[in-house]
Amino acid sequence: MTISWLKDVLGRMEFYFNLLQYFKKIVSEASERVETVDESFEPQMRMADERFGDFQANGALPYAKKNGLNPRELAESIAAKTTSSDLWEISIAGPGFINFKLKPEFFLTWLQELGDMEDTKRHLLADSPRRVVLDYSGPNTAKQMHVGHIRSTIIGESLARLLALQGHAVIRDNHLGDWGTQFGILLYAIKRCDISLDKLGEEPVAFLEDLYRKGNDLVKKFPEALDKARLELVKLQNGDQENLSLWQKIRDLSLETFNQVYELLGVRFDYAHGESFYRDQVQGVYSVLQKYEICTEDQGALVVFHPEHKRFAKQPFIIRKSDGASNYATTDLATLAFRKKEWDAEHIIYVTDGRQRDHFEQLFMTVKKWFQVERVECPTLSHVWFGTILGEDNKAIKTREGQPVKLMDLLVEAVERAKAMVQEKNPELQEEEVERRAKIIGIGAVKYADLSQDRTLDYVFSWDKMLALQGNTAPYLQYAVARIHSLFRKVGKERSNLASTSSTPQSDSEKKLARKISFFPLAIEQTTKELKPHSLCVYLYELATEFSSFYNQEKVMNEDQDTQNLRLFLCAKTQIILELGLDILGIETLEEM
Ligand code: ARG
After folding, report:
1. Ligand 1 atom closest to Cα of 177?
2. 307 membership: H or E segment, kind and range
3. pLDDT tens-digit profile of 443-490?
């Protein structure tokens, strides 16, 4: 059986990757053939309770209510007009739900159509690819990345991968905080202590961070120090050669340090323009917003109010401070205009912590007004925000000394802990291989612990939980993949030869596993819609759990070759989905664990 079932049913040769959309279409088409129904009918397709079926259309009920019809009768007439197929059963439940229960043959055919890894990736491609800018990580230079930056980096990277796999043109831009008032203080401290930036030792950025802290103490205590620091900042902003070259050096040193973290995390950027890139464009922002009367002067500052908004009618969006300096808002306005103009961005996604929600809401409102006046189409703007990482005491995570946890230290510890795990399981393993596995397991665990939480919630960071081989963790998913590899090593069969298997899923656990695999596109759809990787994690965990019970209940190496081939085929498909799903999360897998 090949794609003909769809050809028979729909009269066209098309493989429906997303089954929810497929059944939605079937119900929609059926409804058009029912006289009492007009085009306002919405099938409201969702996954059904397993006991009743696989997909369920709930739309008859609200439609009947609104139009004075009997819901059950309406559901029945829609069902009657539905293209019949011997690959599924339709039934009406409750007051008017239309249930589709798919036969094992259906799942088998679908899985055969899914194909190998490359085919599966091809099915993911979006119909209309867009140009998407992903703005994530964005640490501040002259400071080390601490644990707070991990969420933006990991969530951002995973969304970038998700969208790139769907064929969108993704531009990854690291919006560094590299042009703030902190440089006045830092430059002042560097000069006062006569420090050579070429001789900062092993951890130059840690040194600079410390130096900044000392400088900050000074300017707080002595007004003349503050004046001098301000002067250094003005000089920098006016293009003073000496200060600019010091600043550049600090930026380079910082990026070098950030890159070590990115390398370990497997993250890369196309650009790291940062705030400084836009420093000459802020003047243009002031004048354009003034010209369109979008901003006003308020106590010496230039601000934007949004009278139509409850809070932002009074809470200003400050775009130029009363001392004349630009700020975070100004550079963000310039950045957005640049991304539209130079990159023709159709969607811009910002990944930052939840405390910046007001900033982005005000930014988006301001830009929409600006672009509207200019009759420029505004890109879709999304603020993907996240909560705080908590320590086991339920407070924002800190070191024992009460300092923020440095990201690099955290990642190194993750790898160390994973290493102990690997060594314990395989005492004979070569050092190099131990290191390789430890990195994949340790980094994977940290990433997954973050991604598997609904990003809008705070979560508690726990080494033991994230590295556990049981439960909703990366090692658990990686272990499922390794098990499948080991199975194929033992049986010595080619995965590609199994697609012609003719026996259909029979047993309960075979059917459940097949069904679960077919829901992968739905998980991708939801993750993309909400820009929430945890939906994908939930799905992958359920799939791995379904696989475990299949594996424990069924003897894959069955003597009966047809049965064995079907079971191996299910394993091969599970592997593809787990590997692909983890790849989207930026997590590598292993053939042996
Ligand atoms: N540097 C900022 C921070 O540390 C993040 C930058 C986010 N991106 C942006 N376009 N504002 O919070």
Report:
1. 1
2. none
3. 999 999 999 999 999 989 999 999 999 999 999 999 999 999 999 999
